[in-house]
Amino acid sequence: MTWLQREIQLPRFSPGIHAITHTVLDALPEIAQIRTGLLHLFLKHTSASLSITENADPDVLVDLDRVLDKLAPEDFPYRHVDEGSDDMPSHAKSSLLGCSLSVPIHQGRLCLGTWQGICLCEHRRHAGRRRIVLTLQGETE
What residue ranges of the chain have pLDDT lower than 50? Predict the structure, then answer.
């Protein structure tokens, strides 16, 4: 059984949903050696989130971001307002989507569906770089 843990730092992203599957795969070439296993991703932030969603049509990412804006609008009367008008809606969106994902691995590949991809959902207008802990476990070839 192989265990490996690595932390990656993503570049700054503008608000929206951003595909990061290739970034994750580039950071963990060891996935290719895993016959059966699991990749766990944990985002170390409370104003961004992770999601597995459509990866073929970029309009899906735009529409998903628009839906989140409707669910957690900036003009709602939040009590937590110390860090700007986009802060509390960002926490709400992060809580709705979550900060972790688990993806099965089979024969050296992530078991994502044909149209699925891993995405970082950036909810702040002026966010910093985001960090993700990647934990890989599995049986090697």
Answer: none
Q: 25 lies in a domain?
A: yes
Backbone phi, psi, residue 104, to 5°: -65, 155
Phi, psi of 133 (to 5 degrees): -90, 125
Tokens of 76: 């709602």
Cβ pair 48, 94 in contact under 8 A: yes
For residue 114, which of 54, 38, 60, 36 has the smallest C-alpha distance? 54
**Other beta carbons less than 10 A from residue 128's beta carbon:** 12
Give the CATH number for residue 128: 2.60.120.460
In the block, residue with structure tokens 């580039």: 26
Q: Which helix or strand (DSSP H or E) is residue 76 part of?
A: none
* In a domain? residue 61: yes
Number of domains in the chain: 1
Per-residue pLDDT of 58-87, as tens digits, reads 999 999 999 999 999 999 999 999 899 999
Whole-number Å distance between alpha carbons of 70 and 49: 17
